Amino acid sequence: MKSFEVETLILAGAGTVWGIITDAGNYAVWASGITEIKGELSHGERVKVRMRAGGKRTFHLRISLVPGKCMSLSGGLPAGLLKVVRTFTLTDYTGMTLLRVSDTASGPLSGLVGKTMPGNHVALTEFLDAVKFRAELLSFHFEGGVLPGPPKAAPPSDGT
Q1: 128 in helix, strand or coil?
Q2: Contact call for residues 24 and 40 (beta carbons, < 8 A)
Q3: DSSP SS3 for 43
Q4: Assigned domain for 116 exists
Q5: Residue range 25-47: mean pLDDT, rounded
Q6: 124, 132, 141, 157: which has the fewest Cβ within 10 Å?
């Protein structure tokens, strides 16, 4: 078994982050690394996914989720030669969200993950950075989120 895991703290509510990672129609719009998703990211559904790093291959994935908390996409090769599971886990910290994304590969061909298949640590980090950027931007513009800015100058004194 081979695993990669990355996490980041996002300055946006869990609802905003959840909305981004479950919006199949917009994955191709932002820097997700995914060029196309056919299907809905809903519990028990199957989707077809094309990734920039995957060339012309289409990945057939099954979705399982606990709304607002966890989503897993799983797929692989026949006869148990390879099974890959990507899991998104959100922890809500009232206005901030810890997002953890992990890829776990099992089966006789699991050694290929990270060498010839998309889903390595670098790809996960780039994906997480893109989710973070999008979530913080949306939070700032639409939810009144606060982004760090320069320190405010002290008010002028009246000389007394």
Answers
A1: helix
A2: yes
A3: coil
A4: yes
A5: 90
A6: 157
Burial class (CB in 10 A: 0-12, 13-18, 19+), 84: buried
69-122: per-residue pLDDT in tens? 999 999 988 788 889 899 999 999 988 999 999 888 888 887 766 554 445 677
Q: Decide if 150 is inside a domain.
A: no
CA angle 56, 61, 38 (to 5 degrees): 65
Number of domains, the chain = 1
Does any domain span residue 16? yes
Its domain, for residue 71, covers 2-142
Q: How far is CA 116 from the centre of its chain?
A: 21
- Position 4, amino acid: F
SS3 category, 113 = strand
Whether the model pTM is above 0.85: no
What 3-state DSSP class applies to 20? helix
With respect to residue 159, please indicate whether it lies within any of the assigned structural domains: no
Residue 64, domain CATH: 3.30.530.20
Q: Of the candidates 2, 6, 8, 9, which has an alpha carbon nearest to the alpha carbon of residue 95? A: 9
